[in-house]
């Protein structure tokens, strides 16, 4: 990667980027069920296949993660990802990709109910790493026509899922060349642990995106990560958005990240 946050500007998502348009080709959002050996039961994920999807083509994959109060439905219910992506396709601004929306709380009862900050539930967001590599990625790769090398696999997420994307992505650069975090939460590892070998990380990354609202009470997590990356010359895009810990920032993040992927 040859960009960093100092040498270019990220323009704002254009008006209507998240509004449904008439008469454009649409992707399809499905619910899938996959066997989780890690958890010991079937679990659900949503999968978006792009307009014109065909088993004769080969697709990149973005794994897009939710926040602490969400599940596999959160992006779909609040973020209109299929509309944002369909619009980008219609404008010729997106490479062909499948987007997987997992449930990042890898435990038997994976609903966002009761005390969502319960220690067992927080741990399940860490267990998800084992499940992702052991169960979900193998399922996607066995059932969809996807490219399976690191250059065609991305991970991103919002808040708790942003922390997961940074921890899992930066911890497994042999599996992911593209990483995005929107308003990453305090589950994000300390920078020295997240990126212990900055030079190696810089060599392997194709894109590292971090964005956060200027009013977000968790912004210190993004700030400390961005500062460390800058000090250690790890190229990344850092965007301080106008906004809070909320959907306008995350939808804008998806728009900006998706069009830069692959
Ligand atoms: C915390 C504050 C917020 C935390 C997680 C969050 C694990 C997650 C917020 C979200 O996903 O919206 O202290 O610790």
From TrEMBL:
GO molecular function: acyltransferase activity, transferring groups other than amino-acyl groups
Source species: Paenibacillus typhae
InterPro entries, per database record: AB_hydrolase_fold, Esterase-like, Mycobacterial_A85_antigen
SUPFAM superfamilies: alpha/beta-Hydrolases
Cross-referenced Gene3D superfamilies: alpha/beta hydrolase
Protein name: Enterochelin esterase
């Amino acid at each position: 990667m040859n960009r960093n946050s100092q040498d270019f500007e990220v323009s704002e998502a254009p008006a209507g980027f998240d509004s449904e348009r008439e008469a454009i080709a649409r992707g399809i959002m499905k619910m899938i069920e996959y066997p989780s050996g890690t958890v010991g039961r079937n679990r659900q994920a949503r999968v978006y296949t792009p307009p014109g999807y065909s088993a004769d083509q080969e697709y990149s994959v973005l794994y897009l993660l939710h926040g602490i109060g969400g599940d596999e439905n959160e992006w779909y219910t609040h973020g209109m990802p299929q509309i944002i992506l369909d619009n980008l396709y219609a404008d010729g601004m997106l490479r062909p990709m499948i987007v997987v929306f997992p449930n990042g709380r890898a435990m038997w009862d994976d609903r966002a109910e009761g005390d969502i900050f319960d220690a067992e539930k927080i741990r399940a967001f860490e267990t998800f790493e084992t499940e992702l590599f052991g169960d979900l990625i193998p399922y996607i790769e066995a059932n969809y026509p996807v490219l399976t090398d690191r250059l065609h696999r991305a991970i991103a997420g919002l808040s708790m899922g942003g922390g997961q994307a940074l921890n899992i992505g930066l911890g497994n650069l042999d599996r992911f060349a593209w990483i995005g975090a929107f308003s990453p939460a305090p589950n994000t590892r300390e920078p020295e642990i997240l990126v212990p070998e900055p030079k190696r990380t810089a060599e392997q990354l194709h894109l590292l995106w971090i964005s956060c609202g200027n009013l977000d009470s968790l912004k210190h997590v993004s700030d400390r990560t961005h500062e460390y990356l800058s000090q250690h010359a790890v190229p990344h895009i850092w965007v301080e958005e106008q906004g809070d810990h909320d959907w306008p920032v995350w939808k804008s993040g998806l728009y900006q990240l998706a069009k830069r992927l692959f």
